[in-house]
Amino acid sequence: MKKTFDIKVFISGREFCCEECYGNLGRKAWITLVKDKGALCLSCADLDHLVFLPAGDAALTRRARKHSTLSASGLKVEPRPKTI
Ligand SMILES: [Zn+2]
Known about the structure:
This protein is of the alpha+beta class.
């Protein structure tokens, strides 16, 4: 069976520090969640070669998935509303 990678890439809504290199990536940083490691920057997760495809172009996304073994879906992380 072909193994498909489903990596979730998030855009941080607040200041973000990578848990591996401790780099401060600031706001709107691209991060990913790695099992047993936590939230990492894309360089530490070996994902910095990924190209972001904007949502909405289904044909392009399909073609990109077909020709690459690795793909990630982007999600924007909004800061949690403050609870009073
Ligand atoms: Zn890092």
